[in-house]
Amino acid sequence: MKYFYEHAHVIFVGKSLTASGGQNPIEPGALAKPMVFGPNMQNFEAIAQALVQKQGAVQVRNAVELEAALSEILKDSDYALRLGRNAQTVVRENLGAIERTVDMIVTRLERMAK
After folding, report:
1. How many CB atoms within 10 Å of residue 99?
2. Is the N or C terminus of the chain more exposed, i.e. has fewer CB atoms within 10 Å?
């Protein structure tokens, strides 16, 4: 997928419009690609929410909104660039989240053991 993402002008995150769960938006975000996804991002809820809140992705509710969002991104290169840069910023801000969570859990377990 990385090769595809590198050459794409915009990414639609699969399994997010009609299926449940959604695919991982981190890789296109890390590559500073503008992306669109549907309402079903349960498997990546926190990062999807952060991307939308920080204008790094567009979330749509249906196929009509998807078509409109893709059209807007493809015709406005400044908007596309801004979405991609914002997405990359969100990904960078969240690097190490797993490690920080594990460290927090280990610290709490150590305190409980005392």
Report:
1. 9
2. C
Tokens at 107, concatenated: 């610290």
Give the span between the Cα atoms of 98 and 94, in whole angstroms.
9
Distance separating alpha carbons of residues 7 and 21, to the nearest angstrom: 25
Better pLDDT: 95 or 56: 56
- 44: tokens are 């990546």
Q: What CA–CA distance (Å, rounded) separates 61 from 85?
A: 23
User: What is the distance between the alpha carbons of residues 36 and 70, in angstroms, rounded to a whole number?
Assistant: 7
Is residue 71 classed as helix, strand or coil in its secondary structure?
Answer: helix
pLDDT at res. 40: 97
Q: Which amino acid is at 73?
A: I
Task: Give start and end residues of each alpha helix (H) in the chain.
Answer: 2-7, 26-30, 45-53, 63-75, 77-93, 97-113
Q: Could you tell me which of 42, 40, 44 has the C-alpha nearest to residue 24?
A: 44
- Where is pLDDT greater, at 109 or 98? 109
